[in-house]
Specification:
heterodimer, A: 419 residues, alpha/beta, D-Maltodextrin-Binding Protein, domain 2, 2 domains, 8-stranded mixed sheet, two-stranded antiparallel sheet, 19 helices, 10 strands, 15% strand, globular, B: 328 residues, mainly alpha, MetI-like fold, MetI-like_sf (chain B), Lactose transport system permease protein LacF (chain B), transmembrane (chain B), ABC_transporter_permease (chain B)
């Protein structure tokens, strides 16, 4: 009898505990060490919040892009995730404003990036995302190759044409394979296109992809592939809207100048080490402007979660200045938090190359054009980012004339917007 | 003693099943009992085969980028009309869905080249391996080995061989020849896609053809030899006709597999350069999952069109098989 009572009591206690436990799943991708660093921080959160556990599931970036939206569409998936496609996932995001204790502090610190998720039917003052890695597109140059070739590196504020000429000279002098490369995505293409005068939107805020500015850079871009300035392997080496970068070529010192973004800094610091000197060029200019594209990964909660309050607590914890500072110091990313931007981050154990690159990219972010921010916050930007490489590659490999490719590109975007 | 125990065990096991079986027979009747045994399989087949086919039809006739059917408006045959909207089916640029028609064209060429050359090479290999050659067992294993590899592994191996600084170009450079960007030139990329696909699938068909060759009675060859028939004539008049039923099986299987080719090509070329190696399955994947917005309806319609073509091809081949069986 006594045993039965004890067992029953134990069962009830366990059941009550299980009912009270709030187990959250956090789907996380990382460019460097972001997921591991968040896992450490979340252990501290769990200690302060008994009853809430957060399990970090590290996944490849492709899963965030391709699997996560399908899971969310059917009401499944994690409670939180680290994402970059704010517009595409906006409809599934949880507004945590009702669950945070100091919404004003979050608004003051993350106001600019909060706007990226306030699209579609989302609340205009909702708190949906905490960006833990502000990114900027821009260039990297292999300084050692420039030195070996005896070619002067273009000064800050130089144009793409000047970089192309200098990179070709270095390539020819030292005999590496590639002069320039640009990641295979419309996101990386957008900054240079805007610098060539692409407006992307009309006065009503509706997308107008192909205008004179866009066409001018597209013509130049295709011509650079034809004359061998651009690494053909990156854009012609894949089909459809598949993303492809040239980081491995840069790390292997086989590429003179690489247009990518600040998220590569940590990887370059780790993988290049002291094999050669490299520098961040920051934004590069065109005839009309000198802008790159902002962007960034952030943590969002989802509205199908059974524990919205717990998700709100996690997001508020992640937004804290001290937590963000600790994470950014280890992940070597640029803060989206304005307080931390002003204070600066004490990056731990980084080389001079990495420190200088972080400074250059951080300084370039305020100089980006309004159009760049508008495109980053545009709900259908992912359609533009995937259609651009799909169609321009057809022009690069000669499947379509550039005119036909641009006409098709316009039609693709019009159809995407109509959906 | 041992025999008696075994008999007892058998009787015990038989009795264990006999009673419930008899009860089932009484319940359903002898004529309907077969359905009881088929039911589990039918349920699984219905759930995982027929239901998805029905859902595919539903998706193909509804629009939008949502998955849940309640959120998808009915659009009738709009997706099919959009896919088939062409001024000339031989000029993808004149089609509304140019990438679909490029994928159709690529798939057609791929099936023609891959199936044609694969059957030819498989037949030659099977004929050689059927002879009494040295290390026959070893060579049979060697040809079958790529079949055991994952298509992704196969594609990665060949990517390392074919990329700009890969093994093949290093060899060519070492031998004093120029290098070629094998995967960046449309024609070369297509050639290698066909080659790799043949390389990794051939062993399976060699095995089937080998079994077919070994089932041909040897006395037919002995009779031909006694008549002084040359070897090439035996091949044409004895081997190939008697191997034809096996060849038809190989053809049906290889055509279906070729139309469904995706993984090794996706890893090897990503469908590029441009759309030079994009086949139908990749088009369906791209439209439905990889690009934004996700056009599930269009992807479903494209997959149904592809299924229709496959169905017709299979029926034609089965009709040929039946005709041949009738002739024989």
């Amino acid at each position: 009898m006594k045993t039965t009572l004890t067992t029953t009591a134990l069962g009830l206690i366990l059941a009550a505990g299980a009912a009270g436990a709030q187990d959250l799943r956090f789907m996380c991708y990382q460019d460097g060490s972001e997921c591991a660093v968040w896992e450490e921080q979340l252990a501290a959160f769990e200690a302060d919040n008994p009853g809430i556990t957060v399990t970090v599931d590290e996944v490849p970036y492709a899963s965030i892009l391709e699997s996560l939206p399908v899971q969310l569409e059917v009401g499944e998936g994690p409670d939180l995730a680290r994402v970059t496609d704010y517009g595409g996932l906006a409809r599934y995001m949880l507004d945590v404003r009702p669950y945070v204790s100091d919404a004003a502090a979050i608004e003051a610190r993350y106001g600019q990036s909060l706007a990226w998720a306030r699209v579609g039917d989302n609340n205009a003052d909702g708190i949906y995302n905490i960006v833990d890695q502000l990114t900027a597109t821009g260039g990297f140059a292999n300084k050692t190759l420039f030195d070996q070739a005896g070619v002067e590196m273009p000064a800050p504020g130089s144009t793409f044409a000047e970089w192309a000429e200098a990179s070709r000279a270095v390539r020819d002098a030292v005999g590496v394979d590639f002069a320039m490369a640009l990641d295979r995505t419309g996101h990386r293409f957008a900054g240079p296109a805007m610098s060539y005068g692409a407006a992307y939107f009309d006065e009503n805020g509706d997308p107008i992809l192909v205008d004179d500015g866009f066409r001018n850079f597209a013509e130049q871009f295709v011509a650079w592939h034809e004359d061998g300035t651009m690494a053909r392997d990156v854009w012609a080496g894949a089909g459809g809207g598949t993303y492809q970068d040239a980081a491995a070529e840069f790390i292997n010192a086989n590429l003179v100048m690489y247009y990518s973004g600040s998220w590569q800094i940590g990887r370059f610091g780790r993988d290049i080490g002291d094999a050669f000197d490299w520098v961040a060029t920051g934004g590069i200019c065109g005839p009309e402007a000198c802008t790159g594209m902002p962007g960034g990964a952030g943590i969002v909660g989802f509205n199908h979660t059974e524990h919205p309050e717990a998700v709100g607590k996690v997001i508020e914890f992640m937004a804290r200045d001290d937590v963000q500072a600790a994470v950014l110091a280890q992940t070597r990313n640029i803060p989206a938090n304005s307080e931390l931007q002003a204070q600066g981050i004490d990056y731990q154990g980084v080389s001079d190359d990495v420190k200088a690159a972080l400074t250059v990219f951080a300084a370039s972010i305020p100089t980006f054009s309004d159009t760049a921010y508008q495109l980053q916050g545009y709900a259908n930007n992912r359609a533009i980012f995937t259609a651009t490489p799909a169609r321009l590659t057809q022009a690069i490999v000669g499947e379509l004339s550039l005119d036909d490719a641009l006409t098709r590109l316009d039609a693709d975007i019009a159809e995407a917007v109509a959906q | 003693m041992l025999k008696a125990t075994a008999t007892q065990l058998y009787d015990g096991a038989f009795n264990l099943f006999e009673r419930p079986m008899l009860a089932l027979q009484r319940l359903f009747g002898q004529s309907r009992i077969a359905w009881v045994f088929l039911l589990p399989n039918l349920l699984i087949f219905g759930l995982f085969t027929f239901l998805p086919i029905i859902l595919n039809f539903v998706f193909a006739t509804t629009g939008g980028d949502r998955i849940l059917l309640d959120d998808r408006p009915f659009v009738g045959a709009e997706h099919f009309a959009s896919l088939l909207d062409c001024e000339s089916y031989f000029d993808p640029n004149s089609c509304h869905r140019d990438l679909f028609w490029r994928a159709v064209g690529n798939t057609g060429w791929f099936v023609l080249m891959q199936v044609g050359f694969m059957i030819l090479f498989s037949l030659i290999t099977a004929l050689i391996l059927n002879r009494d050659i040295v290390l026959r067992g070893f060579f049979r294993a060697v040809f079958f080995y790529p079949v055991l590899l994952s298509p992704v592994v196969v594609a990665l191996i060949w990517k390392w061989i074919l990329q700009r600084n890969g093994v093949l170009n290093a060899g060519l450079e070492g031998a004093g020849f120029g290098t070629i960007n094998w995967l960046l030139e449309a024609d070369w990329a297509f050639f290698w896609v066909v080659f790799v696909s043949i390389w990794c699938n051939m062993g399976f068909y060699v095995l089937i053809l080998l079994a077919g060759l070994q089932s041909i009675p040897t006395d037919v060859y002995e009779a031909a030899e006694m008549d002084g028939t040359p070897r090439w004539r035996s091949l044409l008049r004895i081997t190939l006709p008697l191997l034809m039923p096996t060849m038809l099986v190989v053809m049906v299987l290889s055509v279906i597999r070729a139309v469904q080719a995706f993984d090794e090509i996706y890893v090897l070329t990503g469908g590029g350069p441009g759309s030079a190696t994009t086949l139908l399955i990749q088009y369906i994947y791209d439209v439905g999952f990889a690009t934004r917005p996700r056009l599930y309806g269009l992807a479903a319609a494209a997959s149904l069109l592809m299924a229709g073509v496959l169905f017709v091809l299979t029926m034609m081949q089965l009709a040929a098989t039946r005709k041949q069986s009738g002739d024989n």
